[in-house]
Amino acid sequence: MDNKEIYIVITQTGAIISRMLKKITGDEYNHVSLSLRSDLRCMYSFGRRNAYNPWWGGFVKESPEYGTFKRFSETRAIVLAVPVTEESYNELQRNLDEMERHKYAYHYDFLGVVLAGMNIVYKRNKHYYCSDFVRDQLVEFGIENSDVFEPIVRPIHFLDIPDGHIIYRGKLRDFSPESVRENAS
Questions:
Q1: Distance of alpha carbon 76 from alpha carbon 1, whole angstroms
Q2: Which residue among 61, 72, 115, 118 has its CA within the 20 to 30 Å range from the CA of 20?
Q3: 3-class DSSP state of 39
Q4: pTM higher than 0.90, yes or no?
Q5: For 17-21, 94-98, 163-167, which range has the lowest pLDDT when averaged over its residues?
Q6: DSSP code, position 160
């Protein structure tokens, strides 16, 4: 029974690297995060560990209130709600907590993202880029089937997952659960 929701947050910060990725892929959005909270105050992804250094990356907790999203306050977002079972939700939460405890054991996969840009699949243990990480979490915890995804997934591809529904489009800093309820009525 689907009785919980998780949130997939697809963003475009406007930073130099995100503008370069937009130019290369043609995609309007080029980062994706995963949140278990309806207020999005805690999101998980692979990205910048420091808002001012795009080359030091890994497993990160993100929020509109600090870090990269606070620095790039004009960040645009699409937020999808995805129904999950309580069991999947709890297993995902345990896994994310464990990854956070050992966050420095995980690395941003610069090589993997470059090769993905050339349509080459390349996987290394404990190395991820944002969309690779989110896909693996959804598949590992039975939230989505692996056949939903191409071998190389970009943030914009999450808009196509069958169980997701868009609950918000706009500036990330303006998102609130209340605004979602107001727009739904």
A1: 32
A2: 61
A3: coil
A4: yes
A5: 17-21
A6: G
Both structure tokens of 149: 């995804």
Q: Can you tell me the mean pLDDT for 110-114?
A: 90
Q: Are 132 and 125 in contact (CB under 8 A)?
A: no
Rounded Cα gap, residues 161 and 142, in angstroms: 13
CB half-sphere exposure, 151, CA atoms < 13 A? 10
Q: Alpha carbon 14 to chain centroid distance?
A: 16
Which positions ≥6 away from 96 have C-beta within 8 Å? 34, 36, 44, 137
- Quote the CA–CA distance of 9 and 170 in Å, as a whole number: 11
Residues 148 and 179: their CA atoms lie apart, in Å, by 30
Q: pLDDT tens digits, residue range 149-185?
A: 989 999 999 999 999 999 999 999 999 988 675 555 4
What CA–CA distance (Å, rounded) separates 129 from 32? 9
Q: What is the mean pLDDT of the chain?
A: 90
- Asked if 8 contacts 2 with a C-beta cutoff of 8 angstroms, the reply is no
Domains along the sequence of the chain with CATH: 4-184 (3.90.1720.10)
